[in-house]
Amino acid sequence: MFIYDGGTAVHWLGMMTVLLGLEGLIEYQVSQTRQGADVFVVTRGSYDLERIRRALVAIMEKTGPDLPRVTVERVPPLDRMWSGKLKQFEPLTG
After folding, report:
1. In a designed cystine with 60, which of 6, 32, 64, 86 is the match (CB 3.0 to 4.6 A)?
2. How many domains does the chain have?
């Protein structure tokens, strides 16, 4: 869960459903920000990143912060943890 100021929360499952529905998605990482999320995707081919962003905003607006700020960026392969696993959802710490 991503917990925001005021106690609102967004479950990662809704965001994962949007992302896994993308044909050609290789991997993704969602990092919580104070007012939304930064999303990094690795894909085969090009994507309408704005369409992905709007779909994620719609998910977050249901239970999360007012006017969530979401960015989506296509990146080269993502860094993995020492174990080789990819941390797909990173909540804010502290």
Report:
1. 64
2. 1
For residue 72, the domain's CATH number is 3.30.300.30
Q: CA 85: distance to chain centroid?
A: 17
Instruction: Report the predicted TM-score, pTM, of the whole model to 2 decimal places.
Output: 0.90
| 87 within some domain | no
Q: What would the pLDDT profile of 30-75 be if each residue is shown by its tens digit?
A: 999 999 999 999 988 888 899 999 999 999 999 888 899 999 999 9
- Helix or strand or coil: residue 72? strand
Residue 62 forms part of a structural domain: yes
Residue 84 domain-assigned? no
